[in-house]
Amino acid sequence: MTKFAVVLFPDEEDCIDVISSSWVLPSMTPDQKGGEKICRYPPHSIRGAKLAKLVISHVQPSSTWLVCSCRVLCEFDDYLKAREASIRAEETSNLESSAVEEADVRRLRRQKALKSQKKTSTKLANTHETPSTSLGIEKDNPINLTNIDEFKIVAVAQQSEAINQAKSPQHFESEGGGGFVLETNQLTPEPPMPSGELPSAETIITLLKEYQAKNERFQEAVIDRLIHISHKLKSLNLGPSSTPNFSLEGAPPLPLTCKEDLHALNIWLLLGKNQESMVTFLSLHGGDSVSSVTASVMKEIFTNQFAITVSYTGKGGKAVCGIKGSLLHKIAIIRGVRSNRGYENSTEFEIKEAIKNWLRNAGDRCGGREARRHHNV
């Protein structure tokens, strides 16, 4: 049954995504390292909602899709559960229950720390915004950071008025009925400030500036975190970067459709750099046997309609050309098959038999078997 697979792409900085399990090719060797597999992935032009639609519909991959190395973390029957698991795996790179629980605990701790910091900031703001009425400032009009200079002027004016009142002559009555006048130059010492009163205006302004600086640093930290989350989400929506497309510049369009194109391809392969480009292009198909890998390579080179007229040796009733001994045979096909991981030691005999079988069955793939069945009926 086809499922939704949560996969990790080790070659793409351990990027994680959800794909259809039908996109994952069978393991090429039973002892494949680290459980890595080869999968097909849509090209760059298909992303976002289009990509999600392909995954949900379990659309079969085509030969134009990218070939990537992946490791299947888990499989689900439900797409939303698979997507949720992939988001959690972004933090843990692991879908084990213990790892997920640890990630949730860390997330809850961060939330509690942010709430505690917010409460502390609110309490400090309320404390700073309740100035004493002894300075002539109403409680209904808290200090605004943008009006610090205005607040300072009012505070200084209040202090100046108190000093002037202290300097003015004052009359005091004695117990015997007589009195005396306190001269302006005889200032009484200032009584100590009660412990319940607020500090001076300069102290309040300093505290407000410190709070403003702390608040700005907190906002910068929040903005940096939001930018980091935005990059994570963008990376998740885009999916893993593709394996680079290898240029076959100057080669006839593949798959080949006629004898002339086959001749042109053999001429193009005379250059060493073209040979290497062709081998690299054919080295990422994969399969569970030499026959399946060879079939994938042949499908990239020949259309079924043209393959009907091609035989291995060029002999036969319907054959118009062959590939035995050509550069396409020796360089492209044989080296291309051996370049697939796990098939480096494939023998020429195994590859040759797979080529013959694929060319021989070209007519059946074009509907020949179905036509014979109707004819016999």
From TrEMBL:
Spans annotated as Disordered: 110-138
Polar residues: bias regions: 122-135
Compositionally biased spans, kind Basic residues: 110-121
Organism superkingdom: Eukaryota
PANTHER family documented for this protein: SI:CH211-262H13.3-RELATED (PTHR34153:SF2), SI:CH211-262H13.3-RELATED-RELATED (PTHR34153)
Protein name, UniProt field: DUF4806 domain-containing protein
